[in-house]
Design a protein that fits this description.
Elements (H helix, E strand, L loop, with lengths): L1 H8 L12 H26 L13 H10 L6 E3 L5 H7 L3 H9 L32 H18 L25 E6 L6 H12 L4 E7 L2 E2 L2 E2 H4 L5 H5 L6 E6 L3 H16 L5 E6 L18 H9 L2 H11 L5 H24 L31 H4 L22 H15 L3 E5 L27 H5 L4 E3 L4 H13 L3 E5 L10 H8 L2 H4 L9 E6 L15 H5 L5 E3 L4 H13 L4 E6 L25 E4 L4 E5 L3 H16 L3 E5 L2 E3 L3 H11 L2 E8 L4 H12 L9 E5 L8 H7 L3 H13 L1
Parallel strand pairs: 1-2, 2-3, 3-7, 6-7, 8-9, 8-10, 10-11, 11-13, 12-13, 15-16, 15-18, 18-19
Antiparallel strand pairs: 4-5, 12-17, 14-16
Bound molecules: thiamine diphosphate and magnesium ion.
The site of magnesium ion has 6 residues, from β4.
Length: 740
């Protein structure tokens, strides 16, 4: 095995498919057989209940070894499928590493016991952490290739910089690098498969898609997933691709296809898709029994195609090895697999104390003083809106007062000037994709104009439109971020974040944790959110922040005014965690909360609430568009009833400022939690529960909550007004709580 691995690892040293010597053929066989031996040893361990899950590469070995030997570990980039044991062995993952995964050992290099076996990861080999989600990885490969291209075209942007996430990312790139993305034929039904080949094709990216077609997706045969039963026929018209449809049971045929594919990609001609017909010799996994849905004849026909049996017969038939020699090799490899298993079973288990490690960056804490540059230039200080006790009436109206929309745009511009690794993309975010039009037209720059002028200043390589596909936006961003770029991408409306939910929940937020701190994806997702629009209706008024605060690993920010938006966005961009940056559409251009430009270094740490109105009678914890509404209600409560309401603007929802809440509630002994989102299971439920739990002795009244009705937002303004919380509702709650 060592010989074949070292040949694969050394750039370009594995020979062309038509120059293979007998020694290379034996090397290929050893890799294939070792993969099978590790699978069979794991199956034994699973039957002995020493490991907890098993899925095999049996029948896929030829295709996977062909792919690995055409590429370069630690040079090219790899986004494997969960079935890719032979691929990873051929890239240099050791059987012992695989067995450590199977036992869930502390020293499992892929995840430290957090992921199932065969969920690969190796930073030195450039194998990016894999999830169980079918096809998500394809978009990561696309973003990875885009990042590689950006670094190759502009090598200076790879330079290390202090003071932000770049201090913790060593960038590696090669002008002719390739990204390999593997997937089963069943998963080509996922939208993300089509979204990935769309962008790879359009951008002529050096991505090789490898479709491992074993004819089944668990129990579902290929014709159910693929109209006509052949994915190659369906994709044939995508421009710029090199296509190969091959016998995936013959490693030399596969090697040839991947070498041709790699040559096409390295020459900058575009992506490639290698479609290998292989066989699934065992059931889908050890949790499945294929005898329940496949006939004996069908299974036996597959056995006759076993790539290992065929390769063995070939080596003997061509006189490369005798039966005795090949038997001896196989016994040695089986012993190697068995010894790896024995050693792994002795390995220490992960410590329970470490469970919460790597949920977030341990290098760069966005709640820390590094981001506490809140001191303002004089102009901003006097602008009123951000100082304690500000109100809608206090908001500055002079020439220096900028809207939230303007100060977000300014922050993006400042940060893009400062950090050349930032790319901005999304739907309609460019000024004009046909940039020649810009000599005649003003440009679009986002449906809310938040990105206006950025393409014009920074060019179409850094600011561009994505396809109309939200998973594409987030999935590619993950690929960019894995390489050390900083994608600051836009989802046009919160209402349309759902196609990207899979990428956000199962990939973006968990990348660091699942790889035990080895990979990270510090993406910023800017998302316009919320209602009060008059006519926004169901699909332009949604809230739903608690769904994301319920996702570990993701920072969630929700500013209520221009200055906070500017300072928090800066922290979001400079930090090393993924951030969901929620921008309330109604606040974009409101008079409330305008502020003067605070300068290009103004940052606000996460997790620091702000008392926007001091008071002694009760505390109102809120954020977003309810801040000005709460302010209005509090002013009325004071004017007409003499009640002093303290309003706490949380500003960031994860992390949130528990100390500020507790400190205020201890003084006022009464508390309301108010938000725009629906009441039930909303963000306030968690805060209210924690107050009841930890501050029970400080309370003189029950914790009250205010939120929208448990329904969607209607179009007719009369209904919208009734559905969303209004200042009257807040006033009523204040009076009720004070009287309690
Ligand atoms: C998004 C998603 N949906 C469903 C599953 C459950 N699942 C795991 S593997 C699989 C079938 C995949 O078939 P295919 O892509 O052909 O790969 P194969 O297992 O045959 O190699 C399914 C449905 C999953 N892991 N991810
Ligand atoms: Mg399949």
């Amino acid at each position: 095995m060592e010989a074949a691995i070292s040949m694969a690892r050394a750039p370009g040293t594995f020979p062309a498919w038509d120059e293979l010597t007998a020694q290379h053929m034996v090397g290929i066989y050893r890799l294939m057989f070792l993969s099978r031996a590790v699978d069979d040893r794991e199956i034994l361990l699973k039957r002995q209940q020493k490991i907890f899950f098993q899925i095999s590469a049996a029948g896929h070995e030829a295709l996977q070894v062909g792919a690995a030997l055409a590429l370069r570990a630690g040079y090219d980039w790899f986004f494997p499928y969960y079935r890719d044991r032979a691929l990873c062995l051929a890239l240099g993952v050791m059987p012992y590493d695989m067995m450590l995964q199977a036992t869930g050992a502390a020293t499992d290099p892929a995840s430290g016991g957090r992921q199932m076996p065969t969920h690969w990861s190796s930073r030195p080999l450039h194998i990016v952490s894999t999830s169980s989600s079918t096809a998500t990885q394809l978009l990561h490969a696309v973003g990875c290739a885009e990042a590689g291209r950006a670094f190759s075209r502009h090598p200076e942007i790879a330079a290390k910089a202090e003071g932000d996430y770049r201090a913790f990312h060593d960038v590696e790139f090669h002008g002719d690098e390739v990204s390999l993305a593997c997937v089963g034929e069943g998963a080509t039904s996922q939208g993300e498969f089509w979204e990935a080949i769309n962008t790879a094709s359009n951008q002529k990216l050096p991505v090789i898609f490898c479709v491992e077609d074993n004819g089944y997706a668990i129990s579902v045969p290929v014709e159910v997933n693929t109209p006509g039963g052949n994915i190659s026929r369906l994709v044939a018209n995508f421009p710029n691709f090199f296509f190969a449809e091959v016998d995936g049971n013959d490693p030399v045929v596969c090697l040839r296809a991947f070498q041709q594919a790699a040559a096409h990609c390295r020459a900058g001609r575009g992506p490639a898709l290698v479609h290998g017909h292989c066989v699934r010799l065992y059931s889908h996994s050890l949790s499945d029994d294929d005898k329940n849905y496949r006939t004996a004849a069908e299974r036996e026909a597959d056995m006759l195609c076993d790539p290992i049996a065929r390769m063995r017969a070939r080596l003997v038939g061509e006189g490369i090895l005798t039966v005795a020699e090949i038997d001896e090799i196989e016994r040695r490899l089986e012993r190697e697999a068995a010894q790896a298993a024995e050693r792994a079973l002795e390995a220490p288990l992960p410590a329970v104390e470490g469970i919460t490690e790597h949920v977030y960056s341990e290098d760069l804490d966005p709640t820390s003083a590094t981001f506490a540059t809140e001191q303002l230039p004089d102009a901003a200080k006097t602008s009123g809106a951000a100082t304690n006790g500000a109100s809608a009436e206090d908001a500055p109206k002079g020439a220096g007062a900028r809207t939230m929309a303007e100060l977000i745009n300014t922050c993006l511009r400042d940060e893009m000037r400062r950090d050349p690794r930032i790319v901005v993309y999304g739907e309609d975010v460019a000024d004009a994709s046909r940039s020649e039009a810009l000599s005649e037209v003003k440009g679009k720059g986002g449906v809310f104009k938040l990105t206006a002028g950025l393409q014009t200043e920074f060019g179409s390589e850094r600011v561009f439109n994505s396809p109309l596909a939200e998973a594409n936006i987030v999935g590619r961003a993950i690929g960019y971020a894995l390489r050390g770029m900083k994608p600051v991408v836009e989802i046009q409306f919160f209402d349309y974040i759902w196609p990207a939910m899979h990428q956000i929940r199962n990939e973006l937020s968990v990348m660091r944790w699942r790889s035990n701190g080895v990979w990270e994806a510090p993406v910023v997702l800017r998302v316009p959110i919320g209602g009060y629009l008059t006519g926004g209706a169901i699909y332009h008024s949604q809230s739903g922040e608690s769904i994301f605060t319920h996702t570990p690993g993701l920072r969630v920010v929700f500013p209520s005014n221009a200055l906070d938006a500017n300072g928090l966005l800066r922290t979001a961009i400079r930090c090393d965690d993924p951030v969901l940056f929620l921008e309330h559409k109604r606040l974009y251009r409101e008079t409330y909360g305008r502020a003067a430009y605070p300068g290009p270094e103004f940052a606000i740490p996460f997790g620091k609430a702000k008392i926007v109105r001091p008071g002694k009678d009760l505390t109102l914890v809120t954020y977003g568009a309810l801040v000005p509404r709460a302010m209005q209600a509090a002013q009325q409560a004071q004017r007409e009833h003499g009640i002093e309401t303290e309003i706490l603007d949380l500003r960031t929802l994860n992390p949130y400022d528990w100390e500020a809440i507790a400190e205020s509630v201890r003084r006022t002994n009464r508390v309301i939690v108010a938000h725009e989102d629906m009441l039930s299971w909303g963000y306030g439920a968690e805060i209210a529960a924690r107050i009841a739990d930890e501050l029970f002795d400080d309370l003189d009244a029950p914790v009250r909550r205010i939120g929208a009705m448990d329904t969607f937002v209607a179009y007719q303004p009369k209904l919208e007004d009734a559905i969303l919380p209004q200042p009257e509702n807040i006033l009523k709650a204040i009076l009720g709580l004070k009287a309690y």
